[in-house]
Specification:
The chain is α+β, with helices and mostly antiparallel strands. 13% of the residues lie in helices and 32% in strands. It has 4 helices and 17 strands.
Length: 260
């Protein structure tokens, strides 16, 4: 999974994303997809950081790459906790096994969780109160985006997964008391990060996954949309470059298989 050699490709990706949106076929499409602005920072081979802006569809596959952590979420790094908005590609975060990994990509998007999109969907946030999962888990309460996944199995899913460690969407833990849904009426900035390999990182004292589109990502969108999606990530050439999943993931009624 090579890192791009220069800023040229990162800039080209942003331009190609825009041009491909105009070239996408519209036959059979009942309603035009809502577009959203995505901000991307990527670590280049020479150590520089490329910052690009993309206009792309507001579809779940695209938004999930950006909608995990809210501003102020503390990511555990080699230098100590660092707010997600201050984390940059090239910084090293601590993973579940105690090793460090370099951030290759960080994405952000601003949306209004309580506002319905063109298809009537909202993107609610999840608020996890302090000490919900044990002492300092989380440290002082944390609000996550809809794409965040925790390492753990909620009670109602244990009959499906038993003691198998899985990565579960945070909304599956909502209980109306310690873990609640929230729909702010004002804009919220959300972030996600991508490492060289899919990993579990510590954020606000809890174990979350780094970004990975999932093993079935290629089947979820057309070829045109897939090209637009890949152009958001200057450090990959194809979806296969994300590598295998570290652990199985719950979601949409199934567990994604781990691929070699």
């Amino acid at each position: 999974m090579p890192i791009p050699r220069s800023l040229t490709r990162a800039a080209r990706n942003a331009v190609e994303t825009s041009s491909m949106l105009h070239e996408m076929p519209t036959t059979g499409v009942r309603q035009k997809a809502q577009l959203r602005r995505y901000e991307v920072s990527t670590l280049m081979a020479n150590g520089d950081i490329a910052q690009t802006r993309h206009i792309a569809p507001a579809l779940p596959m695209f938004e999930d790459a950006f909608c995990a952590f809210t501003r102020g979420s503390l990511v555990e790094t080699e230098q100590g906790p660092l707010a997600i908005e201050d984390l940059l590609p090239g910084d090293t975060v601590l993973t579940q096994d105690g090793t460090s990994a370099t951030v290759l990509w960080k994405g952000s998007v601003t949306l209004i969780p309580g506002r319905e999109d063109s298809r009537g969907r909202t993107r609610p946030l999840t608020r996890i109160m302090a000490d919900t999962f044990g002492m300092q888990k989380p440290l002082s309460g944390v609000t996550t985006g809809p794409a965040a996944r925790l390492l753990g199995t909620p009670t109602h899913l244990r009959h499906l997964h038993g003691s198998t460690p899985i990565l579960t969407p945070v909304y599956e833990f909502q209980d109306g008391m310690s873990v609640i849904e929230t729909l702010p009426p004002t804009p919220v900035e959300l972030f996600h990060i991508c490492l060289k390999r899919h990993s579990v990182i510590k954020v606000d004292g809890l174990q979350f996954e780094s970004y990975h589109p999932g093993v079935n990502a290629g089947r979820m969108v057309s070829r045109s949309l897939r090209s637009i999606y890949v152009n958001l990530f200057a450090h990959i050439e194809t979806l296969n470059d994300f590598g295998p999943l570290l652990l199985p993931r719950a979601g949409d009624g199934e567990v994604d298989a781990i691929t070699a």
